[in-house]
Amino acid sequence: MINYFVSLFMLCSPLTAIPVFLNLTQGKPKEVRNKIAMILGISVGLILVAGTWGGGTLLKILGIRIAAFQCAGGIIVFLLGLSMLNAQISPMRQTEDDRARSVIPIVPLAIPVMAGPGALSATIVAADTYSTFSDWVILSICGAGVGFVSALVLYFGMQLERKLGPSGLNIVTRIGGLILAALAVEIFVQGIEKLFLSGVL
User: Fold this and answer.
1) Which residues touch 82 (CB under 8 Å, ≥6 apart)?
2) Which of 103, 151, 155, 171 is most deeply packed, by most CB within 10 A?
3) Is 0.85 topped by the overall pTM?
4) Helices (H), the chain
5) Are the C-beta atoms of residues 118 and 11 closer than 8 Å to each other?
6) Is the Cβ–Cβ distance between 108 and 17 less than 8 Å?
């Protein structure tokens, strides 16, 4: 569960979202920024919890195998990790159109910048792997915890940015990208194994 929490935190990558958060809330009073940070954290937690409890069911309704989704999720996570290794925000997580239309930055910050395809893939795969009610409660607690920590990171975003500086943020982002790339390989390989075992491949 600790591994899942850390992986989910790296996938949501609130440290990477700090520059976007500061840009989208530029010119707003400190009190408004703090309120937006709290709303974003709650939104991220709710999205991750919803993915845990309803993501797998939605896939079944759409007729998509968990193993296939796992493989696709592994590719997505790898691309996110690759973009982080290059200290860039992945185009999958934010578009210019999203940025232009968003007034309150729940979109694109809560989704898809933080609770994006990689994080949602991780929640659905974890819910399939650990499938008992008690497991889902623990996974939900992890998701809510990631939302809470994300809120704190954004709440103290300006202070963190000043203390870490551009170089510090880049280092954290690149380390996170390396962890995500390794996680992506694990997710993809597990998906391929399930497809082989089910006779699809």
Assistant:
1) 177, 181
2) 151
3) no
4) 2-12, 14-24, 30-62, 66-85, 96-101, 117-129, 133-155, 157-197
5) yes
6) no
